Amino acid sequence: MKISRRRAIAGLAASSVFVSGSSFGQEKEIKVALIAPLSGPWARTGQLMKIGADMAIEDINKQGGVNINGGMKMRLVSADAGDSVERAKNAAQRFISQETDVVAGTGAWLSSFTIAVTEVTERAKLPWLTLSYADGITNRGFKYITQTNAISSVQAAAAMPDIVKLAEKATGQKPKTVAIISDSTATPQAFIDPLRKGGFEQLGIKIVSDQIYTPPLADAASIVQNLRALRPRPDFLLFYSTNIPDATLVLQKLHEFGMPQTKLPMIAPGAVHMGGPEMLKNVTPQMLEGTILVLANWTSKKQVSILPELEKRSGEPWITSDIISTYGDMYLIKDAIERCQSLDREKIMDALRNTNLKNGAADYYLGGNLSFDDAGRRIGAPTVFVQWRDGKPQTVSPESDAFMAPLWPRD
Amino acid sequence: MELSIEAQVLLETIVQALVNGISVGCLYGLMCLGLGLIFGIMRVINFAQGDFMMLGMYAAFYAFGGFSLSKILGQSIGPIVAALVAGPVIYTFGILMHRILISRVSGLSAATMENDGHNAQLILTLGIGLVLQNTGHIIFGSSPVSIRSPLSTTAWEIVIIRDQVSVIVNQARLISGLIAVAIAAVLSWFIFHSIIGKSARAAANNITASIYMGIDVDRCHRIFFGLGAGVTAIAGGLLALYYPFQPYVGMEFIIVMYTGVVLGGLGSIAGAFWGGLIIGIIQQMSTLILPNQLQNTATFFVFLLIIFFRPNGIFGKTTERA
Predict the structure, then answer these.
(1) Are the folds of A29-150+301-371 and A153-295+384-397 the same?
(2) Which are the contacts of A237, defined by CB distance < 8 A and separation ≥ 6?
(3) Domains of chain A, residue spans
(4) Cβ–Cβ contact B61 with A under 8 A
(5) Is residue A348 over pLDDT 70?
(6) What is the full DSSP assignment across B168-221?
(7) Residues in Cβ contact with B13 at an 8 Å cutoff, skipping those fewer than 6 apart
(8) Does the beta-carbon distance from B296 to A256 stay under 8 Å?
């Protein structure tokens, strides 16, 4: 039989419906993105994030996958943000153009990387979750970004009054003086500037020393000598570093110059690196004992039933915020998809913005309640205190998540 | 003599900065000495020198931990010996690097190349550096490590004025500084009094005449390249006693090394050491009057000032090379 041109075209058009399949056929799996530094100086952090995401997806798939279209498995696709903003942006651009069926993603750890990556994901209308702190991430009017933690400026405003209360309760008097050591990059300065410009004054605390250094530190001796020269010694030290070597050098020098925690309590905001097991490869547990880290997320006593297993599977001595946050992100994405019953990016983003959970995915973020405002910022995100106790960092605040009460180091 | 509190604090701060500067500077001096042998004498631009230092740090780290020097020699002597062991290991690596790669763009081979082979050396050594960094990342991981020893966190308190002024001297740094000075002295003797040292200096002045005199220029360069790598590796091993490192640590020190070599004077071994020492002292003393953020700015400002008045560096001489 002769097939006319019209019949051939009609036949091709009819068959393409079955080939393309998104409306009629079922997708076999749901692809979720992770963009993080997997090489370069921050590779360790990216690897921890990937471990968290991989474990969550494994658990989700074992439990039957995402409850949509009869149950669909999740799959993680990752891209390396590398060691610079430019590389992170290029990685995101390549990723977005290659992985067109990714439904949501998380990353990219460093705030500067996250800002660059989300410029790309926003254009692609890809829902994005991040633990990064910088205020700038969610003040650009973007619609497809969600910050799962307290932003820098909120952390600063919320943390210090609690620190003062803790010190007052332990010592019987309010601290009156503080020394500050911080590195010159954007995130530490964004945290400390509000405190310099009246924040500490409102708390009745005087800044007696304010030293800024350019990382990486070659030597901490001059910085610590300036502290040693202060008479009288300040009531506590606010130390904002962004990498392990700088933190190690300062801790070693403080110890050497006769200013351990018991003589000069240390508060370390944003110091996720100081909560990692790598610190113990460089300093002794005694040098860290009592240090209070001010963070966005950590493990909670509510997770006590799953933590030993996660530690075993990850091969890590304890679970850090990088692992638990991306673990939670995968469950949050799963939850959003199940609520909107769609793989459409816009619908998933709407579901994320309308999140209002007290358990389930919310169990992986401290503070109890998980909801977001129109800008994508978490409403009521708590400031988390993690303290080194007996050789391990433990959540000590908020109380609902704390493993133990906080302690103010004293002689 | 009873000083006021302000005077005590000022004197203590000045002397502490000077002591810190000298101890850090001695180690910088040793690093610069290694590069001085390669850049100053061989005229080879080696941007992988920082990565040779990194290899030295890991060699010392594994010699101390993995090869049980800590158990055999203890926690105080073990790290020092581990740092010294790193020298011959990276010397051998340097020899191999020269034989396989560097010899193709330096010495006799470079005589007919554009710009005496410096362009090719730059590209080649940058490439070697990248390979070393990324291979190091794959093998060693990216977590910073250091050689944990009681020396790193223990200090001697030296009393200047009883009950008023004292300085704190880190044990690891003081011992590292003394070893650095000793190695610099031994190397200096070797270069000026050994046959190979004299041959290398002759080749540095005039390759053609050296060949006519029967000097194996290629062998001289190979030995000096190895020595340069090995000396910088020892500096790295000593630095590892108190400085956390990872495979990209070399990038933090390569500028210090080049600055020290140029400041001290190209071609001058003693100059390279003094250049590094001066950088260490300026880094620490500048914090007495400038904010910490401007430490490196002060270093380069002084560098430019010295080069302005002495373009050949402090110990450099104007010579005509064939």
Answers:
(1) yes
(2) A178, A179, A180, A181, A227, A254, A264, A265, A266, A267
(3) 29-150+301-371, 153-295+384-397
(4) no
(5) yes
(6) EEEHHHHHHHHHHHHHHHHHHHHHHHSHHHHHHHHHHH-HHHHHHTT--HHHHH
(7) A225, A226, A229, B288
(8) no
Q: pTM for the complete prediction? A: 0.86
pLDDT in tens, B85-123: 999 999 999 999 999 999 888 877 776 777 777 888 899
Verify whether the Cβ–Cβ distance A256 to B16 is below 8 Å: no
Pairwise CB contact (< 8 Å): B295 & A257:
no
- ipTM confidence score: 0.87
Strands lying side by side in the sheet with A73-80: A73-80, A29-36, A102-107, A128-130, A145-147
Neighbouring residues of A356: CB distance < 8 A, sequence distance ≥ 6: A369, A370, A371
Q: Is residue B319 part of a domain?
A: no
Q: How many CA atoms lie within 13 A of A260 on its CB side?
A: 16
Per the listing, tokens 């800024």 go with: A212
Say which of A43, A222, A226 has its CB closest to residue B137.
A43
Per-residue model confidence (pLDDT) at position A21: 40
Closest CA to B247 of B86, B127, B136: B136
The number of domains in chain B is 1
Task: Evaluate whether residue B280 is within a structural domain.
Answer: no
- B90 inside domain: yes
> Quick check: A257 contacting B, CB < 8 Å?
yes
Q: What are the phi and psi torsion angles at A392 (to 5°)?
A: -150, 140
Report yes or no: A231 at the B interface, CB cutoff 8 Å: yes
Is B250:B129 a contact under the CB 8 Å cutoff?
A: yes
Nearest to B244 by CA among A105, A247, A85: A247
Contact B20 A212 (CB under 8 A): no
Question: In terms of CA atoms, which chain B residue is nearest residue A254?
Answer: B153
Calpha distance B150→A182 (Å, rounded): 27
Q: Domain spanning A153-295+384-397: which CATH class is it, in words? A: alpha beta
Pick the closest to residue B221 from B241, B204, B242, B233 (CA basis): B204
pLDDT at residue number A5 = 67
Distance from CA of B28 to the nearest CA of A (A): 11
- Token duo for residue A271: 């110091």
**Structural domain boundaries, residue B82:** 49-258
Instruction: Answer whether A52's CB lies under 8 Å from A323's CB.
Output: yes
Nearest CA in chain B to A232: B5
Q: pLDDT tier at A11 (50, 70, 90 boundaries)?
A: low
Closest to B132 (Cα-Cα) out of B268, B282, B286, B251 = B251
Please give the CATH number for the structural domain made up of A29-150+301-371: 3.40.50.2300
Answer whether residue B108 is part of any domain: yes
